[in-house]
Amino acid sequence: QRNTHVLNLGKFSSVIKLSAFFPFKSAQGALENINAVSEGVVHADLKLFLETNLPSGGKKKAMLGVSDAKLGATLQEELNLSIQTGGVVAEIIRGVRLHFHSLVKGLTSQAASKAQLGLGHSYSRAKVKFNVNRVDNMIIQSIALLDQLDKDINTFSMRVREWYGYHFPELMKIVNDNSMYCKLAKMIGNRKELTEEMLEAIEEITMDSGKAQAILDSSRSSMGMDISPIDLINIESFSSRVVSLTSYRQELQAYLQSKMSQVAPNLAALIGEVVGARLISHAGSLTNLAKYPASTVQILGAEKALFRALKTKGNTPKYGLIFHSTFIGRAAAKNKGRISRYLANKCTIASRIDCFSEVPTSVFGDKLRDQVEERLAFYETGDAPRKNLDVMKEAVIQASEVAAEIKRKLEKKEKKKKKREKRKLEALSTAEGDDEEPKEAEVRVSNTSIGGV
Predict the structure, then answer these.
(1) Distance between CA atoms of 244 and 238, rounded to whole angstroms?
(2) What is the pLDDT of residues 28-65, one digit of tens each?
(3) Could you report the per-residue pLDDT of 333-375, keeping only the tens digit for each?
(4) 436 CB neighbour count, 10 Å cutoff
(5) Taking the mean position of all CA atoms in its chain, how far away is CA 11?
(6) Of 63, 250, 358, 360, whose CB count within 10 A is highest?
(7) Which residue ranges in the chain fall short of pLDDT 70?
(8) pLDDT at residue 7, as a whole number
């Protein structure tokens, strides 16, 4: 029965009457109000509306229905109102939303839909901009693309080796590097046309005069088959693509390093950009990684082995993605588990500092890396490492100094920017003044001429 009353405009209008309506002055005002409502804050417009339209004599007796419980609690605290949320209030507000264009005079459903859509877009845009963790999305995509490029470049290079190997099989034994092989295949082309004049160009690619001479000698006595010009064109074209992919991979690696130094400098300094990016990608975000305990970070990436060990009641894995760190490889076999546990602990600290610090610096990451190095030396030689408290005190002092320096530079940069903007405005106002003066002169001249006539 309640649902029927809500859906039927006639029945709903007989129960609910519109007593007051306050339109927003602008789209910006509407956005400010909806942001305040989403955060549970009472906006000045809402406060004024309630104070104006609620019964002045008996505010405590008036019952205010609010859909959002958080906002209701704030209203009750600030304005001392009797608040009701949920139940029948939700049904009434649903009916108001459904018949809003009919309750307000001069408002059509199309105009209401357009206004709601515009406000929804503005609100969503503001929320996306407010997301402080959005930059780690670039790291997640970059590391995924880097892994895919590694696979593709390896596959394509093998294809070039096999394809060009029919014509010049000896080159495969001389050159092991895939990128170098593709460059040479593109540059040499037909081995029968390789001459002494091309020796210098080959040496530039191989960076080895002995290899360059060996390639030249092998081309003269090669056992490879002859190749047609059209086949050679296709091989050269494909080799060019592989070379361009290799150069793009290097650019992407540099981009990832710069992003990691901005987003997670301490984690990058501790464990490296690539391994740190893989940890962030596997966790889903830097915030998620910061929430993980050290025991989870230690086996992150080895979930399959973990669940298999739990199922078979065997030994659980000692490390996951952090195995690719140089520290695990340098440790002795008996100490790999111990150093991986210690490294995971430091990674957790670094990720939390990166996630919640205002000014990103790599000071803590460098200090944590030194601690891991000292722990490795302790396992090998028995030299006692420094206490964590002393290291962290030193790191806090250095980090505060670096942060102060960064803030000073940013403030200086901001001042210069404001000065440039001020000069531009002054130049524009001067130019506008110069343009107006000739017009006034023209008007005076024309008036004089009329008076003379």
Answers:
(1) 10
(2) 888 888 888 888 888 888 888 888 888 765 545 678 88
(3) 899 999 999 999 999 999 999 988 888 889 999 999 999 999 9
(4) 9
(5) 51
(6) 360
(7) 1-5, 56-61, 128-134, 432-453
(8) 77
Which residues belong to CATH 3.30.420 in the chain? Answer: 2-130
- What is the sign of the dihedral through the CA atoms of 385, 387, 390 and 392? positive
Place of tokens 């408002």: 107
- Among 218, 209, 356, smallest CA distance to 286 is for 356
- Architecture per CATH, domain 264-385, reads as Orthogonal Bundle (1.10)
Q: Which residues of 65-85 are buried (b: 16+ CB within 10 A; e: fewer)?
A: bbeeeebbebbeeebebebeb
Where in the chain is CATH 1.10.246.90?
A: 264-385
Q: What pLDDT, on a 0 to 100 scale, did the predictor assign at position 14?
A: 78
Would the pTM of this model clear 0.85, i.e. be above it? no
Q: Say yes or no: domain 2-130 is CATH 1.10.3470.
A: no
Distance of alpha carbon 103 from alpha carbon 448, whole angstroms: 63
Q: 347: which residues sit within 8 A by CB, 6+ positions away?
A: 267, 270, 271, 279, 294, 297, 322
For 414, 421, 422, 432, 440, the CA distances from 428, given in Å and listed in that order, are 21, 11, 10, 6, 19
HSE-CB of 17 using CA atoms within 13 angstroms: 2
Q: Enter the tokens of residue 294.
A: 């050290």
Res 382: pLDDT: 86
Q: Note whether 256 and 311 are within 8 A (CB).
A: no
CA distance 430 to 85: 59
Tell me if 289 sits within 8 A of 133, measured CB to CB: no
CB-based contact 135:263 (threshold 8 Å): yes
Q: Which two tokens stand for residue 16?
A: 């609910």
Q: How long, in residues, is the chain?
A: 453
Token duo for residue 287: 């915030």
Whole-angstrom distance, CA of residue 343 vs CA of residue 271: 9
Parts of the chain belonging to CATH 1.10.287.4070: 138-255
C-alpha dihedral, 441 to 445 to 446 to 447, nearest 10°? 100
**Structure confidence by residue, pLDDT tens digits, 290-302:** 999 999 999 998 8
Q: What is the pLDDT of residues 246-271, one digit of tens each?
A: 999 999 999 999 999 989 999 999 99
